[in-house]
Automatic annotation (TrEMBL):
Similarity section: Belongs to the low molecular weight phosphotyrosine protein phosphatase family.
Domain Phosphotyrosine protein phosphatase I: 1-149
The keyword Hydrolase belongs to this UniProt entry's keyword annotation: yes
EC assignment: 3.1.3.48
SUPFAM superfamilies referenced in this protein's UniProt entry, alphabetically: Phosphotyrosine protein phosphatases I
Species lineage: Bacteria, Pseudomonadati, Pseudomonadota, Gammaproteobacteria, Oceanospirillales
Keywords, alphabetical: Hydrolase, Protein phosphatase
Alphabetized Gene3D superfamilies for the sequence: 3.40.50.2300
InterPro entries assigned to the protein according to its UniProt record, in alphabetical order: LMW_PTPase, Ptyr_pPase, Ptyr_pPase_sf, Tyr_phospatase_low_mol_wt
Name under which the protein is recorded: protein-tyrosine-phosphatase
Coiled-coil residues: none
Highest taxon, organism lineage: Bacteria
Length: 158
């Protein structure tokens, strides 16, 4: 099972989601059965570590994002990942526009797994520290739901 988190530049929201989801997989005993990655729609930050503010907010909750590096979405991702999860509606539209007709990957908004099917994870890049805290709260809630969905799919396939 493979999960890809997608935002605009891959330095705030999607690496935060990657780190939080990894923690929830580990707590659920599923870490060895699920591959997790994140990327951005655009190339602006490729090769860079997550935003320092995102790292600091995550570290305060025991998550280390320092080893992650930004990358851009690749067309091959649609064949490699079972889930491609967008942080907002613009990211989702970009994914849908690039999605090959034969892709059977689940492409959708990440917060749908928190029972918020139309809600976006707000981009904290141009705001204050409270925006990074809100991102963490939202991705934590969605991570719990996604773990349960992944668990169900793994059990069905077993």
């Amino acid at each position: 099972m493979r999960v890809l988190f997608v935002c605009l530049g891959n330095i705030c929201r999607s690496p935060t989601a990657e780190g939080m989801f990894r923690r929830h997989l580990d707590e659920a005993g599923l870490a060895g059965r699920v591959e997790v990655d994140s990327c951005g729609i655009g190339p602006w930050h490729a090769g860079k570590a997550p935003d320092a503010r995102a790292q600091a907010a995550a570290a305060a909750r025991g998550l280390d994002l320092s080893g992650l590096r930004a990358r851009q979405l690749d067309d091959d991702d649609f064949g490699r990942f079972d889930y491609l999860l967008a942080m907002d509606h613009d990211n989702l539209a970009a994914l849908e526009a690039r999605r090959p007709a034969d892709s059977d990957a689940h492409v959708g908004l990440f917060l749908s797994f928190a029972g918020l099917p139309d809600r976006a994870v707000p981009d904290p890049y141009y705001g204050g520290d409270d925006g990074f805290e809100e991102v963490l709260d939202l991705v934590e809630a969605a991570s719990r739901g996604l773990v349960e969905d992944v668990r169900r799919r793994l059990e069905e396939g077993a």
